[in-house]
Design goal:
The protein is α/β, with parallel strands linked by helices. It has helices at 2-84, 92-111, 136-145, 161-169, 183-186, 190-208, 230-239, 261-274, 290-305; strands spanning 123-129, 151-155, 173-178, 214-215, 243-244, 249-250, 279-284, 309-311. Helices cover 56% and strands 10% of the residues.
């Protein structure tokens, strides 16, 4: 009987030992399974999140693309607005610049047409007062280079007879400006004015053989320094077959000696482009005005590029008279 009891105890001990050994293993296994399940769940969540990101990424890209498109549309609108004449949401400064660009473009297009001239579409007459001077030959060289003829209103100057002859020989028009260019002397009275005109006329005719009847008043026909009424001077000129010419465009080279060639040309082109009709340009051929010489090539190129016809005064050319008599 004793041995049987011992056997039951041994069995219980064995079972307890087995349970003691198996339970930790079971618990460990259960924990591992649970951890695996949690990790799988986490992996699924990570995978799902990554899928969401993959789907949303094109949405973000689309959003950026739309923003870029809006920028592109705005940029295109700013560039194309002047063409479409749509000024909505356009910077006024941009409008000014694009308007200028449009005018330049129109000028280029129109200047290529044989039957159209841009802007006011008229002739331009280049005139030089007060020569001949030390720089007359340089002016003539430039005019010859561009095959352009001009009008020289000359003052009697015994130091440059060869320059006067060259003006005539190269086909430019000679006009009379005075013998002395001294206002107090030539405008002292009508007799003084008549003698002054005769003096410069005879000098030109003697050296060139040209009986010119073109005249420009020193100071213009609207001058306020003449002691004799301009109407009397005009009457004398007309009675003797002369015609006088003023101007409607000028470089202001005689007024402001420090103007650069660019500024001189800007002054001229402003008036030329604004004039409703033909333009008579006043410049000066004097020793003090070398900037006029330097400005001339660019002036000619600008006028020619914009389609203007460069002519000389005389015949049916405009007079542009500042003073007009009642009989006119």
């Amino acid at each position: 009987m004793k041995s049987k009891g011992i056997g039951k105890l041994n069995i219980l001990l064995i079972i307890a030992a087995a349970a003691f050994l198996v339970l930790p293993t079971y618990l460990t296994y259960s924990l591992m399974k649970r951890n695996d399940a949690i990790e799988e769940k986490a992996d699924e969540m990570v995978f799902s999140a990554s899928k969401v990101n993959e789907v949303s990424a094109p949405i973000d890209m689309l959003s950026h693309s739309e923003n870029d498109a809006e920028v592109n549309i705005q940029a295109t609108t700013e560039v194309e607005a002047p063409i479409e004449k749509d000024t909505t949401d356009i910077n006024p400064l941009t409008l000014v610049e694009t308007a200028t660009d449009a005018e330049e473009s129109d000028s280029v297009e129109e200047s290529t047409a044989t039957d159209a001239v841009p802007l006011n579409g008229k002739r331009v007459y280049l005139t030089f007062d007060d020569g001949p001077s030390d720089y007359t030959d340089e002016l003539l060289d430039i005019l010859a280079e561009y095959n352009v003829k001009a009008t020289f209103f000359v003052v009697r100057n015994f130091q440059h007879p060869d320059s006067l002859r060259r003006i005539a020989e190269e086909g430019h028009t000679i006009g009379l400006h005075s013998a002395s260019h001294e206002y107090s002397k030539l405008y002292a009275d009508l007799d003084s004015f008549e003698k002054d005109v005769q003096g410069v006329h005879n000098w030109v005719e003697h050296l060139t053989g040209i009986d010119t009847r073109l005249y420009r008043f020193p100071g213009g026909s609207s001058n306020t320094v003449s002691c004799v009424p301009i109407s009397e001077c005009v009457e004398y000129l007309h009675e003797n077959g002369y015609e006088y010419y003023d101007w409607n465009a000028e470089s202001r080279d005689a007024e402001l000696l420090d103007l650069t060639p660019e500024q001189l040309n800007e002054n001229i082109m402003y008036s030329v482009r604004s004039n409703e009709g033909d333009s008579i340009v006043l410049m000066h051929d004097l020793d003090e005005h070398y900037n006029t010489v330097e400005a001339l090539p660019d002036l000619i190129e600008t006028l020619q590029s914009e389609g203007y016809e460069l002519c000389t005064l005389g015949g049916d050319s405009p007079k542009c008279q500042h003073y007009i008599t009642t009989e006119d």
